[in-house]
Specification:
The complex is a heterodimer. By secondary structure, chain A is an all-alpha fold. Chain A has a single domain, classed as MetI-like fold, CATH 1.10.3720.10. Chain A contains 13 helices and two strands; from the N terminus they run H-H-E-E-H-H-H-H-H-H-H-H-H-H-H. In chain A, strands 1-2 form a two-stranded antiparallel sheet. In chain A, helix 2 packs across helix 3 and helix 10 runs parallel beside helix 11. Chain B is α/β, with parallel strands linked by helices. Chain B has a domain of about 180 residues: Rossmann fold, CATH 3.40.50.300. In chain B, about 30% of the residues lie in helices and about 20% in strands. Chain B contains 13 helices and twelve strands. The longest helix of chain B has 16 residues. The two termini of chain B are about 40 Å apart. The chains are: A mainly alpha, B alpha/beta. The interface between A and B is medium-sized, with 26 and 38 residues.
């Protein structure tokens, strides 16, 4: 091809060839959280295959083992055991599996629901918009937990119910932001152009509005992921979330609080895990969320704002 | 009913014949678009009638807010029904687009009528490739096209508007193309289904001068293949170059309409004369351009009589009280001015 005649094709970002490239482009503040996230997700997925993984077996004679403690049979417990002699590391991994499942599942539900309603409201306007706006206001007025307590009390807690409840109550964030953005998107010429080509409303929404929202959706979902993990921990802490013998990090924290003086390890282990995971999500997604911050446009390490 | 001229309705006066003219592709009659304003409904487009003839370029000129774009948007059903009340008719091939339902309009848009927008950068979707958007344009009106045929037709459409390396463009995005190339792609999209009418809304305003000429040539090439074209512009220079006939709009009404040479050489309305006088000229040195005094009237505050009379240098008493109708002012040339004789000396 005569490259001299063709207009310059814009340079795409140079390919990443090594870990150093990764650090250079995104900075340690982003790459390390990615590694931590990958480790947690891998561990959660691989947990059942690990030799020591046994989150359900109780053994009262080996309760309250401390870090690196060995039980009577000589088995090593890396993070010790709990009040009933269950291996704490196994519980932590089971908690990670459930927490991540609930978080990812409910964020998916929120995203689909919120984006669908937000796009419909913003694009169609009129009565549809007014109904969605009222729904948003109502949802904002009712605390999420207050809505969940009676539902869980009546139906009993289960994994699917938790995903559904957290998901269904989380759509508002998506709907509000997406609706506002669609209001400006639908005034774009290419939306008129699509209509002028003979596109119907559904085709315009799916082919022209939705693809332009991918950045916004990614940002909102990544922000929501961290919040939802904390929310599940809070629900479990209240006894509304995951039920024993299954466990989640929130439930582990709740069960550990009576032993806060006698064995703070039981509280510290799940608390540190929770903080690490949420921090890793929030820091690791900063390069994506940066698009929403007008103060930052350049590529490279993301500076962290200290203080309020 | 009496038959004197005084009681004949404005619509009849506004057109040379009562029905659609024989060689008209699009016949617009009495198009009125009312918008809700804080002081009640006001007409952004006021009883506009015109024809677009087969294989002609009709230029629509006027200042911002004169109703050019609203006229065309209303014809294509792009104004939202909840904010605008539209009356009148716009008949394309026996189908009245004003009263037609959305599904009929959807079949007409992109198939019988193509549209070229002012700013190609915003008229192309930034996150979809050129190929995907061309393919959409074809498939919206022909679902059974094969993938290879889609590709062939897309490449052919790009090649026809002079896009270099058309194969490569299919995978590119709008931001990877120059402004001129973007407008070529947009024109290729508008022409891809061989429409009989192309509406070009200020197609050259966003382009630099050398590219403007190339884009105008593309439109003329389409005209030579039998496509009728409506060009909206406020650039009389562009019109003189491409238009066969011109309609001048002011405050929601057509104030003058005729062949481009007639309108420019034997101007029949002081507003058109003002537009002409405000243009810079190459052949003579002018220290200051002559602007039209004042500003176009607001939609909510239009003067009675002739809407132009407060700014008109030759306005008389009648101009403030009686609204002039479009009447003959030459061969195929009509003007809505009480004082044409004075204007033409």
């Amino acid at each position: 091809m005569a490259s001299s005649l063709a207009p310059a094709i814009p340079r795409r970002a140079a390919p990443l060839r090594s870990v150093q490239d990764l650090f250079h482009r995104y900075g340690a503040i982003t790459v390390i959280p990615w590694a931590v996230l990958a480790l947690i997700v891998l561990a959660a997925i691989a947990a059942p295959a690990l030799p020591f993984y046994d989150p359900y077996t109780q053994n009262l004679s080996s309760a309250y083992l401390s870090i690196m403690g060995r039980d009577e049979a000589g088995t090593l417990h890396l993070l010790g055991t709990d009040t009933l002699g269950v291996d704490t590391l196994s519980q932590l991994l089971l908690g990670a599996r459930l927490s991540l499942t609930i978080a990812i599942g409910s964020v998916l539900v929120s995203t689909v629901l919120g984006v669908a309603l937000g796009v419909a409201a913003g694009y169609l306007g009129g009565i549809v918009d007014r109904i969605v706006v009222v729904l948003i206001d109502v949802s904002l007025a009712v605390p999420r937990v207050l809505f969940m307590i009676p539902v869980v009390a009546v139906l009993g807690s289960s994994l699917w119910l938790l995903i559904l409840l957290i998901g269904v109550t989380g759509w508002v964030v998506f709907a509000r932001v997406v609706r506002a953005q669609v209001l400006t998107l639908r005034r774009r010429d290419y939306v008129d152009a699509a209509v002028m080509m003979g596109s119907g409303h559904l085709a315009v929404m799916v082919r022209h509005i939705l693809p332009n929202l991918h950045g916004t959706i990614l940002v909102l979902a990544s922000l929501d992921l961290g919040a939802v993990i904390v929310m599940e921990a809070g629900l479990s802490y209240l006894g509304l979330g995951v039920q024993p013998p299954d466990t989640s990090w929130g439930l582990m924290i709740e069960q550990a609080q009576e032993y806060i003086v006698t064995d703070p390890r039981l509280l510290l282990v799940p608390s540190i895990a929770l903080v690490t995971l949420v921090l890793a999500i929030n820091l690791g997604t900063r390069p994506f969320t940066a698009e929403l911050r007008p103060t930052r446009r350049r590529r490279g390490p993301v500076p962290i704002a200290l203080g309020a | 009913m009496t038959t004197t001229a005084a009681t004949t309705s404005p619509a009849q006066l506004a057109t040379p014949t009562d029905g659609p003219t024989a060689d008209a592709l699009l016949t617009v009659r009495d198009l009125t678009v009312l918008f809700d304003t804080p002081v009640g409904p006001r007409a952004a487009v006021d009883q506009v009638s015109f024809d677009v003839r087969h294989g002609e370029v009709l230029g629509l000129v006027g200042e911002s807010g004169s109703g050019k774009s609203v006229t065309l948007a209303s014809i294509m059903g792009l104004t939202r029904a909840d904010t605008a009340a539209i009356s009148g008719s716009a008949v394309l091939d026996g189908v009245d687009l004003i009263s037609a339902g959305e599904s009929v309009l959807r079949g007409v848009r992109g198939k019988d009528v193509g549209m070229v927008f002012q700013n190609p950068m915003t008229a192309l979707n930034p996150v979809r490739s050129v190929g995907a958007q061309l393919a959409d344009a074809i498939r919206l009106h022909d679902r059974r096209v094969s993938k290879t045929e889609l590709r062939e037709r897309s490449v052919a459409a790009l090649a026809e508007v002079g896009v270099p390396a058309p194969e490569m463009r299919l995978g590119q995005y709008a931001h990877e193309l120059s402004g001129g190339l973007q407008q070529r792609v947009a024109i290729a999209m508008a022409l891809i289904n061989d429409p009989r009418l192309v509406i070009a809304d200020e197609p050259t305003t966003a382009l630099d001068v050398t590219v403007q000429a190339q884009v105008l040539d593309l439109l003329l090439a389409a005209r030579d293949r039998g496509t009728s074209i409506v060009v909206v512009t406020h650039d009389l220079g562009v019109l003189a170059e491409v238009a066969d006939r011109v309609a001048v709009m002011y405050a929601g009404r057509i104030v003058e309409m005729g062949p481009v040479t007639g309108v420019i050489d034997r101007t029949g309305h002081p507003y058109t004369a003002g537009l002409r006088a405000s243009l810079p000229r190459l052949e003579q040195r002018i220290e200051r351009l002559t602007p039209i005094g004042g500003a176009p009237p607001l939609l909510v505050d239009r003067p009675g009589g002739c809407a132009f009379h407060p700014r008109c240098p030759i306005a008389g008493e009648i101009c403030g009280t009686e609204r002039p109708e479009l009447i003959a002012a030459g061969a195929d040339h009509r003007s809505a001015c009480h004082r044409v004789e004075i204007l033409r000396g």
